[in-house]
Amino acid sequence: MAFTAFSTALSALSAHTTAVDVVGNNLANLNTAGFKTSNVVFHDLVTQTLGLGETQVGLGVARPLTLRQFSQGALQSTGGSLDGAIQGDGFFVLRDAAGALMFTRAGTFHTDLDGNLLTPTGERVQGWTETAGVVDTNGPIGNIVVPVGTLRPPQATTAFALSLNLNSAGAVGGPGGTFSTPVEIVDSLGVAHVLTVTFTKTDANEWGYDVSMPGGDLAAGTPGTPFSLGNGTITFDANGRLATPANPPGTVPFAAAGLTSGAADLAMDWQLYEPDGAPKLTQYAQTSAVAAVSQDGAAAAQLVKVGLADGGVILAQYSNGEQRLVGQLALAAIRNPDSLMAVGNNNFQLTARTAMPAIGVPQTGGRGKLMGSSVESSTTDIAQEFTNLIVLQRGYQANARVVTAVDELSQETMNMKR
Q1: From CA 90, how far away is CA 161, in angstroms rounded?
Q2: Is the domain of 177 the same as that of 266?
Q3: Total of domains in the chain
Q4: Distance CA 30, CA 72 (A)
C-alpha cells in the first residue's frame, strides 16, 4: 500500500504542477486583447479493488484537461481607427504567410505599405475588398487591401437636383415673380463651375426657367456674360405640386460643350422628382427658397484616413469630406469553439474535432456584432485566478506531505528487518 500511495501522490504533484502552469498562463495574459481563459478539469484514475471487492483504493489523478472558455470579454474603447471588437459569437478570419486559415478574437489591426490589413504579428485579415466601386459580400473572402496615400480622381457631374418652393403669390413681372439659385458642378478635370438656375413667373401656376453658366467657362461664351445652356417651362397643379415636366421621365437634360478648362463636355440631367415619385419643386404661398441642392460630381481628393466602422465596414475618408466604402470584414461562426487549438499570437486553428466554420457578414447567421475603435479585453479574472492558485498550492503541499509520510513508513518497514 505504501508504494501505491507513493505513486498516487506523485500523480497529484504532476497534475497540480500542470494546473499551476495553466493559472500562470491565464495571469500572464491578463492584459492580452481577445485572450480567453483556460480552466483546469481534474479526473481520477482507475480504482484498484482489494480483497473481495469491499475495499477500493484509487490510483491517483490523471493529467488534467484544459478547457478554454469562450465567454464574452469586456469591450474597451481604444480610439484606434482600425481596431475592432466582436460583441457576441464569432471570430475574425486570418491567413498566415503559408496561407493557413486562422481565427482570432483580438481586433488590433494595421496596414502595411501596400495597404494590406494585418494583425500585429503579420497575419492577413480576411473579408471583401471593393472592386469596381462595389464590395460584393456574396463572393469568396480574400485579403483585405485598403487604399493608402492614393489620390481619388475627379468625377464629372452627370445629375443635379434642387429642392425648392416657388412663391405662388408672386406677381408676373412684379415682386416675387423671379427667383434664382446657384448650383456648383464639377467637370472631368475636377474644375468647379457654377450653374445659375433662374425662375420667372409667366402665368398662374406657370414658371419659365433658364439654366446658365459663366460665359468665360465656355469657348462659345463671352467672359462676364452668362451663357444659357437651355430653358423651358414648368407648371404646377391646383395643389402646388409639379405637373410638367411629368414623371417619367422626370428629368431635363442639359449639355455644356467646349469647356475652356479642357475637360470633356458635360452632359447633365436635372432631376425633378424623388425616387418615390414626389416632386422636388413645389409652389405654395411662401417665400421662394431652396431647401437642398445636390449633384453627383466630385473634385479630385487626397485620402485622409481609413477607418473600421461599426458592422465591420472599412471606410476611406477623403479631403473633400467624401466617405467611401472600400472593404468589409468577415466573421466566422464556429459551433464548438472550445475544440480550437491555440497557436500563439492570439490565434486559433481548426482541429479534427472542430465544426466547419460558417463565414459571413457580422450580425448574420448567428455571428456577433462588430464594434469599431474598440478591442475585447482578456477574460482573465485576477481574483478568481489568485483563489485557484491558493487552492492548487495547498493541494500540492498536501500531496508532498503524503510523499514524505509514505517515505517514512517505508523506512519504518525496512527497519523492522533489523
Answers
A1: 44
A2: yes
A3: 3
A4: 15
The CA–CA distances, whole Å, from 139 to 70, 109, 113 equal 29, 23, 26
Tens-digit pLDDT profile for residues 229-261: 999 999 999 999 999 999 999 999 999 999 999
Exposed/middle/buried for 162, CB within 10 Å: 0-12, 13-18, 19+? buried
Give pLDDT tens digits for 109-159: 999 999 999 999 999 999 999 998 899 999 999 999 998 877 888 999 999
337-to-69, 112, 341, 379 alpha-carbon distances in Å? 9, 30, 9, 15
- 197 with 232, same domain? yes
Residue range of the domain that includes 326: 75-151+303-376
Using alpha carbons, list the distances in angstroms from residue 231 to 27, 158, 211, 273, 370.
76, 18, 6, 18, 51
pTM across the whole model: 0.74
Distance CA(333)–CA(327), nearest Å, equals: 20
What residues contact residue 357 under an 8 Å CB cut-off, 6+ apart? 91, 93, 103, 332, 333, 334, 350
Q: How many CA atoms lie within 13 A of 260 on its CB side?
A: 12
Distance (Å, whole) CA 323 – CA 211: 30
Classify strands 313-318 and 301-308 as parallel, antiparallel or unpaired.
antiparallel
What one-letter code names the amino acid at 192? Answer: A
